[in-house]
User: What shape does this take?
Amino acid sequence: MHDSNLIRNFSIIAHIDHGKSTLADRLLEYTGAVTKRELKAQMLDDMDLEREMGITIKANRASISYKYHDQVYTLNLIDTPGHVDFHYEVSRAMAACEGVLLLVDASQGVQAQTVANAYLAVEAGIEIIPVINKIDLPAASPEDTALELEQVLGLPAEEAVFTSAKTGEGIKELLDAVIERIPAPQGDPDAPLRALIYDAKSDPHRGVICHVRVVDGVVKRGDKIDLMGVGSTYIVTEVGQCMPKPKALEVLRAGEVGYILAGIKTIVDVNIGDTITLSSRRAGELLPGYQPPQQMVFCDFYPGPGTETAELREAMEKLWLNDCSFTFETASSDALGIGFRCGFLGLLHMKIIQERLERESDVNVVQTAPTVTFEVALRDGTVMRIESPSELPDMSHVEHIGEPMIDTQVIMPADCIGSIMQLCLDRRGVHKKTEYLSPTRVMLTYQFPLSEIIYDFYDKLKSMTRGYGTMDYELTGYKTGDLVKLDILVNGIAVDALSVIVHRNKAIHRGRRLLIRLKKEIARHQFEIPLQAAIGTKVIARETIRAYRKDVTAKCYGGDITRKRKLLEKQKEGKRRMKQVGSVSIPQSAFMSILDPGD
Amino acid sequence: MESLGLYLHIPFCRSKCGYCDFYSVAVLNRPILPLIRALARELENRLAERPGPISTIFVGGGTPTVLPRPELDELMSCLKQVVDHDHPIEFTVEANPGTVEEAKLDLLTRAGVDRISMGAQSFHLPELQMLERLHTPDEIPRSVKSCRSVGIRRINLDLMFGIPGQTLAGWRESLHHAVDLGVEHIACYGLTYEPGTALTARRDRREIVPCDEELEAEMYLAAIDDLESAGYHQYEISNFAKPGERCLHNLVYWRNEPCIGVGPSAAGYLQGVRYKNVSNIEEYICKVEQGGQAVVESEKLTGQDLAGETVMLQLRLNCGIVFDEFLLRTGVEARLTYARSIAKYVQNGFLKVTDSGVALTRAGRLMADTVIADFIDEPRSAPRCRAGSTRRSKWKMENGKWKMRTCRR
Assistant: This one.
């Protein structure tokens, strides 16, 4: 018996560590979807890395039954990632829901990602239920937190639900609120099928699993379906729901959330945001899709010691089939050989991809310093986007260079405001707003060039606010700046992999810092090595690596002989892995020194 | 004829010095006789298989002279049969100033010891303290005098430069004190921060500031000059001797000749095999009792490894590598195998061509490891060929560089 009035589709959004996964576990347990025995801690985060880093990376989902006023409702929970880099996954999940639980830790209050995620929900026009969690903690102040929500986001404090996912307090009230306040899905079961693919996952045994929200119509096993955007056709082999274990069903109907298996081989064949319809009875229009993920941070991955380029390629292809949110293409550097230019949603995303590569495929990755895309306007009127300083054309052809800008919300204890404003100023931030969430907490809104925050802004913010500061950002477009290409010359030879694009005012400072770092990384040679930083032909900073004077083993007797020989062989081996620039050997670590943000 | 050395390791010291990475433990009331008995047993087994007569004996450590007299006596009596049978031409015992009471020295000379190597290190108290040495400067001449009084004819003093806080003038004073004592042999070691030592840990914690490299180089060159003008000729990177007084035992190592090693952590080189004993007294005793020996590592050296070690050792000598002898010992034609490195370093002045081979120059001695590393690496970095392939024939050496042969048909 299908009644879409008995369905609620919702997801949980929260700042990192505010207890989202624990709340999801508790909902599953309370409704009997899983028993306590089955409930590994944080059931929905199924990747090791997620559990270790405490971050949900891929959206997960579960359908649970809940009895309310003698009616059995199906609640479809869509878990979402909670980090600044994963906006697009959150927005996908929201497009499949009628409401969200906005979860806030009662001991920490509103944080930057709370705000950013709430804005996304407001944009999506769906119901928001504020949930104040962790009320069992001694440091919790639930009422103040509710007031903060009202202050910042205009969500009435009296509408908040108070819970402790740990003790189970308030879980019933929360489930009731989901049913009472989140609207039932609309949609016409008799209309032609339209199902939105909000996530897709590759399974080694079953092919691609498409997670869908059926908007109109019904879909069942044996149906011939079209992916409208791609224009390909498949036969449905199974439909079902995650309970949270996958369970096959007869049909999925309008309003329902579930999965479809259709013998799709690779994830590349599926576009997230695409619409599924029936070949025999096609829908007229596609559902409004998602924006494709936008890679904003770029770096190169090169094979590290013991890894071949081919192995790295295989590992990247394998990972990409599972998670195509990053991009990669072959790149070659004079300094590091053949590797891959990769694009990421953000810094955390980059780190996660690197770790997954190393962990899941057992390869060693050398990562170069991250950069952003630049928009280069040429004198002949053409505009190009470049992802690496080495792609920059001759400066005489360049009219101007634009860099990506972001709007950033930073939330911190009020007593830190001075030092954080100074930090923002140092990073070319433009102040837009200061808002007090409460007498002790403040939210700053700044505009930054993205390049200024991709290195270590977040770490700095954390340490300057004793860990309390949080941030989130949103891209706003490109802005022309007085940007120059800073070349680094080692023994008179420019090294492409060390070039950076920087703001002119920061070039000297940055150049000096870079040279000091390089001086530490490059071992002394038998000759003096000049290091120079230059803009065009103008040298703006210089350091010298002194020649070494003495390299001799003092004692070499019976017991030392083999050990010393092996030591010399090893040193030589290490040197062979270094990059030769002219007659200078540069270790790979030196190429990471451009990570140094310059202050 | 090849010499055959015998090395005995006595792993006891009064206390451990901060820079030392040799295996030794403090001698504190520990039963020593079980070790001496194990040493005797290993020695007996090794000697039974010796390929020829022992030409030199060196008892080192540790500080062999910290052994109480009865144990020292026991040790010497183990060696008596070698001395009586093989008539070694040199018998050295290591000692530290302050550990050489005349009764012990007397015992040594009667056992046939004719050479004492003394760890003097410095004639300046603050430097000795920095090194955590237990003796004072004035104990050095006293100990030398004691040695002479019992008839020890040949004495070596070890000195150290590059000590934190040491000055060039202070170093030259130490050198002159040693010269004034009239010893036959002086060894000058640049202080080395060995991994795992207390001194290295102190440096890493920035408790001490290592000597400036430039100054250390000057100290080294000053030693070469000052000792030369005092009649001590350098014959190895760190060793200087009056004419006819070179340490014959150590020459065995640097010529890469065979040597028997006995005792915990001792290393030996017999029939082309390098071996090393376990570095733990209890385990050593246990192993020897069970199997007559205590080897934990051994490696048969062949081909480029053998050649590489021979280069590393022989280039340390002032006479350098003698090509014909090198070929006999290793089967490798050094002139061709190391052609690139030889050309490179002759050109920059670190190597000189001798009548029969190559040797480091004065400038080259400061950079010996750089030069040696290139030699060792040369056969390893030459264009590779797979076993059984004929690709090698495509490559040829031209002006010290590997070049691809161009095929003409």
Remarks:
- Residues 54-59 of chain A have pLDDT under 50 and may be disordered.
